[in-house]
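Recall that a protein's primary structure is simply its ordered list of amino acids. Everything else, from secondary elements to tertiary packing, is in principle encoded there. The following example makes that idea concrete.
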Amino acid sequence: MKIRAHHLLCLLGFRGLGYSPEFVRRMAGTKKRLEKGPVFSVAVVDICDDICLACPYGQEKECRKGKLSVSRTGEADRKVLKVLGLRKGETVPSDKIFPLLREKINSFSKIIPICGKCGWREVCTYYLKLRDSWRTKRKM
């Protein structure tokens, strides 16, 4: 299975919302496979992936949601790859994906450079968890 680097982070905080019913089904199914197994190989890519196939904005193998979509999604992919210490196309066992994300992107200061401009950040459970933890620490 091929998954965009930024989609891995999206899957970690996914809570059942998306661009279309088919996209939501694809995200939910992918998240369930990553969480429940059996273990399979995930090629971490920086191009359209198996999830993008269900997106109504995917055209000509690129994200066409808006005029900045191609550059923003590519930038998010590159940032996630860098933080995880992976090269594009590198294969990772599915049961290692979420633990690796939680280890490497474990604070608000680490997620904000990646997800700070994302339109989904206010409904992403992982982003909100890290932000809430940061806010609590600031109040102390």
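Residues 84 and 104 are 6 Å apart (CA to CA). Helices lie at 5-12, 21-36, 69-84, 94-104, 108-115, 125-139.
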